[in-house]
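Quick review question:
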């Protein structure tokens, strides 16, 4: 905590906590917004190739946009345990850190694979979860580099 030399130990802890919390919240919402855009693009490409190549997109695009927003919102809420990593005791434990950081998107993907959806629906949910997980992992890697 050399970045705050004039603060008491307790105040340095809270300065770290607030800075780390801000970083985690910013990364979480960046993941959310980037995931909305990329999952929409991936789902449109999937729909073009696998589902209906000659279909009128007037009805498909609005449902994919609303569905993508809803699924990414669910993934965002499921990823809120990330905010507990602002506590140094939890951050320093690798197992707890990985569980808190990646449990939400992984549980979403497992639930998608185990649900009995109609043909084609589970792929849309799976692609959205995978896109969110990949972007979340990229921000985790950046966070690790930032912390060193």
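Suggested answer, residue by residue:
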């Amino acid at each position: 905590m050399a970045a705050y030399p004039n603060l008491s130990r307790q105040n340095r802890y809270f300065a770290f906590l607030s800075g780390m919390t801000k970083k985690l919240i910013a990364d979480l919402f960046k993941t959310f917004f980037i995931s909305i855009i990329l999952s929409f693009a991936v789902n449109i490409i999937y729909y073009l190739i696998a589902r209906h190549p000659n279909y009128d997109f007037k009805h498909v695009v609005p449902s994919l946009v609303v569905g993508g927003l809803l699924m990414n919102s669910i993934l965002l809420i499921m990823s809120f345990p990330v905010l507990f990593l602002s506590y140094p005791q939890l951050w320093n434990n690798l197992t707890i850190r990985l569980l808190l950081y990646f449990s939400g998107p992984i549980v979403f993907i497992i639930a998608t694979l185990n649900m009995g959806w109609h043909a084609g629906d589970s792929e849309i949910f799976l692609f959205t979860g995978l896109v969110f997980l990949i972007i979340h992992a990229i921000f985790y890697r950046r966070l690790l580099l930032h912390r060193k």
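Why it works: The longest helix spans residues 9-51. The chain has one domain: 9-147.
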